TrEMBL record:
Keywords: Acyltransferase, Transferase. It holds the Pfam family Acetyltransf_1. InterPro entries: Acyl_CoA_acyltransferase, Bact_Acetyltransf, GNAT_dom. The keyword Kinase does not apply. GO terms for molecular function: acyltransferase activity, transferring groups other than amino-acyl groups. Residues 3-198 form the N-acetyltransferase domain. SUPFAM superfamilies: Acyl-CoA N-acyltransferases (Nat). It comes from the Bacteria. It comes from Bradyrhizobium valentinum. This is N-acetyltransferase domain-containing protein. The lineage of its organism: Bacteria, Pseudomonadati, Pseudomonadota, Alphaproteobacteria, Hyphomicrobiales.
Length: 298
């Protein structure tokens, strides 16, 4: 039977998550990285499917799932969260067909910009995206450090930091996003605050100067620095908050152009683990002041 592409259903998502894990580990292994991507439950995918099912697609070969394409939109911004093909099936043109389906999502919603984050060493994927008008804009680096090293080097921030309760108003978060990214992410904040990630409000004199999320495993992101705030102080406050969760390791995705942020994390003992790249149809956002959560969420 020929390969077919159809809309994704809830019952596909666990299978698709395992496919994504295999594909990433295969890619990492082929480029000399340890194949250590864990299998993660498709919680964000399920959330986005419930919000807008037209952004998720499945490729099948004789009823076996061999590809998964997943995009989300906010206002007139379209984002490709995942596009992965089963190892061994990647030279069959399936990736291009899936990408075409996801791009229809952008066209239907009249998106004025399109973006994604991918691994900087995945040149075949980068080539595919550039053919569709998405160009490399911002280098990103997955970095990590032992929590004990960061704890030893960290000095307390002058900014106060407090957890954000699930169900709390997110208007102030949306305003920071609007200033930095050019669009609000209120629904995404509501989603994150219902997960095991802890959100933190970072403030000075009662006014928000940023926010940060930290997972129990010590991954930080998204993190945002409000315009005019001290990036190094916001990062220090976020590190203190993440350390309060008592992880063994801290990690985040740092934009290469965020000089103050990069200087602070290198001072705290972080080192580069993997290079990534933000690609988009046109430039957007102030990437000196925003740390993505992961390539899928941004």
């Amino acid at each position: 039977m020929p390969i077919s592409i159809r809309p994704a259903r809830n019952e596909d998502l666990e299978i698709a998550a395992a496919l994504v894990q295999r594909s990433i580990n295969d890619l990492w292994s082929r480029h000399g990285f340890e194949p250590s991507m864990p299998l993660r439950p498709p919680v964000f995918q399920a959330f986005c499917l419930s919000e807008d099912a037209t952004g998720l697609w499945i490729a099948e070969d004789d009823e076996a799932i061999i590809g998964f394409g997943f995009s989300w939109t906010l206002a007139d911004f379209w984002y490709l969260a995942q596009l992965f093909i089963e190892p061994g099936k990647q030279a069959m043109g399936v990736g291009g067909e899936l990408l075409q389906k996801t791009l229809l999502h952008a066209e239907r919603l009249k998106a004025t910009n399109r973006a994604l984050i991918t691994f900087a060493f995945n040149t075949s994927a980068i080539g595919l995206y550039t053919k569709h008008g998405l160009y490399p804009r911002q280098p990103l680096y997955r970095i990590s450090a032992p929590a004990s090293v960061v704890q030893r080097r960290l000095r307390s921030s002058r900014y106060a930091c407090s957890p954000i309760a699930a169900g709390a108003p997110v208007d102030w978060l949306g305003q920071i996003d609007s200033d930095i990214l050019g669009f609000r992410r209120d629904r995404h904040h509501e989603y994150l605050l219902r997960t095991d990630a802890t959100g933190f409000r970072i403030e000075e004199g009662g006014s928000a100067v940023g926010y940060a999320y930290a997972s129990p495993e010590g991954h930080i992101g998204p993190l945002a620095v409000a315009s005019g705030a001290d990036s190094a102080e916001v990062v220090s406050a976020a590190m203190e908050a993440a350390l309060s969760l008592q992880p063994q390791q801290l990690s985040l995705i740092a934009p290469g152009g965020a000089d103050a942020l990069m200087a602070k994390v290198i001072e705290l003992g972080f080192h580069i683990v993997q290079p990534l790249v933000l690609m988009s149809a046109r430039s957007f956002g102030d990437w000196r002041n925003y740390v993505p959560r992961d390539p899928g969420y941004m």
